[in-house]
Amino acid sequence: MDPDSIPLASLSITHVYYDPSDKISLLCAYLALLPQALCVVYATLILFTREVEVALMFAGQLACEVLNFVLKRLIKENRPPRMHGKGYGMPSSHAQFVAFWSIALALFLLVRHRPPPVQRSRAPSSAHMPWTLLQRLALVLCSAAIAAAVAWSRVYLNYHTPRQVWAGCAAGVLSAVAWFLFTAALRQTGWLNWALETPLFRAFRIRDLVVEEDMCQAGWEKWEERRVELKAKPKRKTK
């Protein structure tokens, strides 16, 4: 049977079309939802951590989407025949989105993130150790693998040609590097520090700790102090 003649189904509550008789096609349809899931993660982290670095990364992600919107309407290249009529395909927005996310995360973890070293000989047994370089590298490789899977899924679902996906990946990588250099300039010139001191940023308690603080460390010492105090209370009562 001609693959183009197989009727497609739409994934529930989405507009992602896939072949219902193909389990890999169904998996690819779920991979297509990753950009939406990442936007939820971005918003959640911004709301609950108030970290300016996360907000800057999300701003870059949105700028990357705007760039994709402009490029598609300048190039005006159609999608593969089966998905013809469902918008322009060059470059792939999914590939561009995940490429930006993966590279931006890698640049943060391997270049910008510099947690202070902890001397294990002096640290208490309950102290949380910052992620090592190997742990951060493992996370970077995982994000790259996920991004590659999403990009490949767009070709498998016939939403894009390989050339459109490669173009999206290239645009995402270049955008991530350019945004990293731009935010580095904001830090070096003092504009970011100036913004953090403005009444608006202070009203929303925006801070810039994650660059130098371990990502799992926030509030850990406070929790450890409270835990020790709670354990000590019964002993004081018995005495």
Automatic annotation (TrEMBL):
Pathways involved: Protein modification; protein glycosylation
Name of the protein this chain belongs to: Dolichyldiphosphatase
Task performed by this protein: Required for efficient N-glycosylation. Necessary for maintaining optimal levels of dolichol-linked oligosaccharides. Hydrolyzes dolichyl pyrophosphate at a very high rate and dolichyl monophosphate at a much lower rate. Does not act on phosphatidate.
Gene Ontology annotations for the cellular component aspect, listed alphabetically: endoplasmic reticulum membrane
Membrane topology: Multi-pass membrane protein
GO biological process terms, semicolon-separated: lipid biosynthetic process; protein N-linked glycosylation
Family assignment from sequence similarity: Belongs to the dolichyldiphosphatase family.
Record-annotated Phosphatidic acid phosphatase type 2/haloperoxidase domain positions: 54-180
Chain ranges passing through the membrane: 24-48, 95-112, 133-153, 165-186
Enzyme Commission number, as recorded: 3.6.1.43
Organism expressing this protein natively: Stachybotrys elegans
Keywords, comma-separated and alphabetical: Endoplasmic reticulum, Hydrolase, Membrane, Transmembrane, Transmembrane helix
Gene Ontology molecular-function annotations: dolichyldiphosphatase activity
PANTHER family from the UniProt entry: DOLICHYLDIPHOSPHATASE 1, PALMITOYL-PROTEIN THIOESTERASE/DOLICHYLDIPHOSPHATASE 1
Catalysed transformations (reactions): a di-trans,poly-cis-dolichyl diphosphate + H2O = a di-trans,poly-cis-dolichyl phosphate + phosphate + H(+)
Matches recorded under Pfam families: PAP2
Location of the protein in the cell: Endoplasmic reticulum membrane
Classification via CDD domains: PAP2_dolichyldiphosphatase
